[in-house]
């Protein structure tokens, strides 16, 4: 577990441009007062963004994730079994359509 905590800290310090952009929208309780955590360790995973209060996970996928569809599906199913809802966005969606991405996140938080 300690390895995951250290890895999460490393990832927080080295966020991708898409992660930085999304974090600028999620931080400081800008989503209806909900608090998000970034690079949150959960079991064997490090979740890109997590709202603990609403059990909502937001994952960003880059082009390297194209071949990891099976892994992502299994991970999502496991998180669902633990009561988490998972939203996935491509990096380019966050970079080019951040307003639409934010709207989907807000709908998930309010729904």
Question: Can you give a write-up of this model?
Answer:
The protein is α+β, with helices and mostly antiparallel strands. Helices cover 49% and strands 23% of the residues. α3 (69-81) links the parallel β3 (56-61) and β4. It has helices at residues 2-13, 17-26, 69-81, 91-96, 98-110; strands spanning 37-42, 45-51, 56-61, 85-90. 21% of the residues are buried. The chain has a single domain (2-110), classed as VSR Endonuclease (Endonuclease, Chain A, 3-Layer(aba) Sandwich), CATH 3.40.960.
In the residues, how many domains can be counted? Answer: 1
* Low-confidence blocks of residues: none
Largest sheet properties:
4 strands, mixed
CATH topology: Endonuclease, Chain A
Estimate percent helicity.
40-55%
CATH superfamily annotation: VSR Endonuclease
CATH architecture: 3-Layer(aba) Sandwich
Strand content: 15-25%
Number of strand elements:
4
Q: Which quaternary structure do these chains form?
A: single chain
Compute the CA-based radius of gyration. Answer: 13 Å
Query: Can you tell me the CATH class?
Result: Alpha Beta
SSE topology string: HHEEEHEHH
Gross morphology is globular
Average the pLDDT over all residues and give the rounded result. Answer: 88
Spell out the blueprint of helices and strands:
Elements lengths: L1 H12 L3 H10 L10 E6 L2 E7 L4 E6 L7 H13 L3 E6 H6 L1 H13 L1
Parallel strand pairs: 3-4
Antiparallel strand pairs: 1-2, 2-3
């Amino acid at each position: 577990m300690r390895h995951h905590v250290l890895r999460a800290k490393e990832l927080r310090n080295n966020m991708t441009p898409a992660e930085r952009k999304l974090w600028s929208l999620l931080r400081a309780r800008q989503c209806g007062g909900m608090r998000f955590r970034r690079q949150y360790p959960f079991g064997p995973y490090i979740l890109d963004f997590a709202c603990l209060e609403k059990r909502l996970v937001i994952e960003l996928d880059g082009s390297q994730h194209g071949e990891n569809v099976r892994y992502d599906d299994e991970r999502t199913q496991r998180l669902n079994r633990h009561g988490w809802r998972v939203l996935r966005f491509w990096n380019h969606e966050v970079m080019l359509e951040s307003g639409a991405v934010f709207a989907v996140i807000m709908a998930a938080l309010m729904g």
